[in-house]
Amino acid sequence: MRIDNVHLDTFSSPKEDSFIQGVRACVPTLLAYLSIGFACGIVQKTAGLSVFEIALLSLILYAGSAQFIVAAMLVTQSTSMAIIITIFFINLRHLLLSAALSPYFRQLSPFKNMLVGALLTDETFGVAMNEAAKKKSINEKWMHGLNITAYLNWVVANIAGALLAQWISNPEKFGLEFALPAVFIGLLIISILDRSKIKLDVVVAIIAIVIAVGSTLMLSSSLSIIVGTIIAATIGMVVEKWK
User: Fold this and answer.
1) What pLDDT score was predicted for residue 179?
2) Are 136 and 219 contained in the same domain?
3) Is 111 within the bounds of a domain?
4) C-alpha triplet 11, 15, 17: angle, nearest 5°
């Protein structure tokens, strides 16, 4: 009887998230990685980088916005120190992303946490937070599947763009730059649909828009968006906790 109970418990327990499931979770973001990476490869090649240098930059730096800026600064003949400092400040946001995910991996060693955080991007962070919202946890293997898939796809897209740069001199005419905002809109919709408080989400979004637009009378547009987001998110959190 004891053996039977153990057998039944084993089959009734939920399957642990696997590496392959992490790969599948990354699929919705692959199109954005391909289009943006493709455009990035073209821009970097146009800036004078070789295919090998573009591949190396994608492998080591692995940051879309930073790689675009590197290409732009190379064209303007900026110094190496200026490029390094600029990239440092641009990528500081990854400290916040890693800090937000760290509670889900507190049981891991510092080295394993470093492996998880090293390949974290804005997109994989969004997917991971959706996973955390649904399951209240994130599996290490699942996270590696998500991160590594995005990483390899980005490198391949950059190399493909570099190789085909001689035929495509103006990637903007294809609308590739819209892929990145589009993927975040998709992640936002998925996150809202997975929640049971859609009305609250919509109200918070409206508040954020009103505050952001109103703040432009006194602040810059970029700072207004930040202020609107912070205030609306705080209001939403207070209302959700209060209920």
Assistant:
1) 54
2) no
3) yes
4) 170
